[in-house]
Amino acid sequence: MFLESNPRFVSRLTRETLALIMAGGRGGRLSSLTDWRTKPAIPFGGKFRLIDFPLSNCINSGIRRVGILTQYKAHSLIQHVQRGWGFLRGEFGEFVELIPAQQRMDKPLWYSGTADSVYQNIDIIKAHDPSYVLILAGDHVYKMDYGAMIARHAESGADVTVGCVQVDREQARAFGVMSVEEDGRVTALTEKPADPEPMPGQPDQALVSMGIYVFNRDYLFQALREDAEDFASSRDFGRDLLPRAIARDRVNAFLFSDPVTGQQAYWRDVGTVDAFYRANQELIQEEPELNLYDQEWPIWTYQAQLPPAKFILDEEGQRGVAIDSMVSGGNIIAGAEVRRSVLFSQVVVEPGAHVEAAVVLPGVTVEAGSRIHGAVIDEGCRIPAGTAIGEDLAADRERFHVTDGGVVLVTAEMLGQEVAHVR
């Protein structure tokens, strides 16, 4: 294969690529998890944030020029990027650049869609002078070498290449569903169809867009200008710009698969509380699909300087234990039991408490005798002593948010507590 025999070709292409990460949306389907933070800033996997996955993919792929387009409640995201992603060397042309929504002289408006957010920053893209522009979503969890996709794009002569994955048809209703010819050319892209088109020979599967696009620079500029002049456009890549490109130009699909097995690679859209909960719970399996211990493709992040997790008390009925769980730095499990749970940093679980099948975000205190099952506990909550969560969903609905899947989301506001500083 051309890519395997020409690694310098891929390296040159990634050096000539500018990545833009879409990180401006709220993510309303995540309910109160995005009341005080943008979706890409949500903690994930015990110590990371969602934005760390596309950023790490860029760095590991050899793409060292990255812009992050921000808008909605971006303070915690900006703080995280400034603290954890400032190690690139500007004198070598490397950067992770925060690009907030700004009032432009000719258009004093917020970003009105994903395509508009890029259009409003054409001058910045021009200043970096890339050959290719890689558009990425800032809120998906996966590990991907973008170099292979960019190389395929360059080889094919396409104007645009769209990253795609296979999902169950039922799930496909939440995505942009693609129709693709045998040579990889995209013939249609339908946003969130009620009846997704099945893949040929696989009636229970559909091909959906990952929200990852590779554009030739000049083609992107032309397409953005045309979209900006179309008053009927919603200024969105998936709804407007790409369907227009598919109708008249060359748009190819790149199927994201495991490079070794050729099977569908791990990719999760954690756009709902249920999906966020499931993706975190998957990580505590004995051999999860997403390997966070992979030293060949590390996920980089900012980490506070915290002491190791501590498990204390060794008395009958009051031993501090965590079983089938992920426990982060700064945690104290004091005479309590934690099972099948993901505990982020600086979580304290007091004597007699029982936490099972839970996702507990940073800075939470679970006071003595509390019982938590099947819940997501937001950052900074203090669960009062003796509280039961997840045992009586009818009672939980009166105080908290209960999802269709039966996951209980608890925030400080729901507990009547002052909202902690969201980090």
TrEMBL record:
<dbReference type="InterPro" id="IPR005836">
    <property type="entry name" value="ADP_Glu_pyroP_CS"/>
</dbReference>
<feature type="binding site">
    <location>
        <position position="209"/>
    </location>
    <ligand>
        <name>alpha-D-glucose 1-phosphate</name>
    </ligand>
</feature>
<dbReference type="InterPro" id="IPR029044">
    <property type="entry name" value="Nucleotide-diphossugar_trans"/>
</dbReference>
<feature type="domain" description="Glucose-1-phosphate adenylyltransferase/Bifunctional protein GlmU-like C-terminal hexapeptide">
    <location>
        <begin position="307"/>
        <end position="410"/>
    </location>
</feature>
<feature type="binding site">
    <location>
        <position position="111"/>
    </location>
    <ligand>
        <name>alpha-D-glucose 1-phosphate</name>
    </ligand>
</feature>
<keyword id="KW-0808">Transferase</keyword>
<keyword id="KW-0119">Carbohydrate metabolism</keyword>
<dbReference type="InterPro" id="IPR011831">
    <property type="entry name" value="ADP-Glc_PPase"/>
</dbReference>
<keyword id="KW-0321">Glycogen metabolism</keyword>
<keyword id="KW-0067">ATP-binding</keyword>
<comment type="pathway">
    <text>Glycan biosynthesis; glycogen biosynthesis.</text>
</comment>
<feature type="site" description="Could play a key role in the communication between the regulatory and the substrate sites">
    <location>
        <position position="110"/>
    </location>
</feature>
<dbReference type="Pfam" id="PF00483">
    <property type="entry name" value="NTP_transferase"/>
</dbReference>
<feature type="domain" description="Nucleotidyl transferase">
    <location>
        <begin position="19"/>
        <end position="285"/>
    </location>
</feature>
<dbReference type="InterPro" id="IPR023049">
    <property type="entry name" value="GlgC_bac"/>
</dbReference>
<comment type="function">
    <text>Involved in the biosynthesis of ADP-glucose, a building block required for the elongation reactions to produce glycogen. Catalyzes the reaction between ATP and alpha-D-glucose 1-phosphate (G1P) to produce pyrophosphate and ADP-Glc.</text>
</comment>
<comment type="similarity">
    <text>Belongs to the bacterial/plant glucose-1-phosphate adenylyltransferase family.</text>
</comment>
<dbReference type="InterPro" id="IPR005835">
    <property type="entry name" value="NTP_transferase_dom"/>
</dbReference>
<feature type="site" description="Could play a key role in the communication between the regulatory and the substrate sites">
    <location>
        <position position="71"/>
    </location>
</feature>
<keyword id="KW-0547">Nucleotide-binding</keyword>
<feature type="binding site">
    <location>
        <position position="176"/>
    </location>
    <ligand>
        <name>alpha-D-glucose 1-phosphate</name>
    </ligand>
</feature>
<dbReference type="InterPro" id="IPR011004">
    <property type="entry name" value="Trimer_LpxA-like_sf"/>
</dbReference>
<feature type="binding site">
    <location>
        <begin position="191"/>
        <end position="192"/>
    </location>
    <ligand>
        <name>alpha-D-glucose 1-phosphate</name>
    </ligand>
</feature>
<dbReference type="Pfam" id="PF24894">
    <property type="entry name" value="Hexapep_GlmU"/>
</dbReference>
<keyword id="KW-0548">Nucleotidyltransferase</keyword>
<dbReference type="InterPro" id="IPR056818">
    <property type="entry name" value="GlmU/GlgC-like_hexapep"/>
</dbReference>
<keyword id="KW-0320">Glycogen biosynthesis</keyword>
<comment type="subunit">
    <text>Homotetramer.</text>
</comment>
<dbReference type="GO" id="GO:0016779">
    <property type="term" value="F:nucleotidyltransferase activity"/>
</dbReference>
<protein>
    <recommendedName>
        <fullName>Glucose-1-phosphate adenylyltransferase</fullName>
        <ecNumber>2.7.7.27</ecNumber>
    </recommendedName>
</protein>
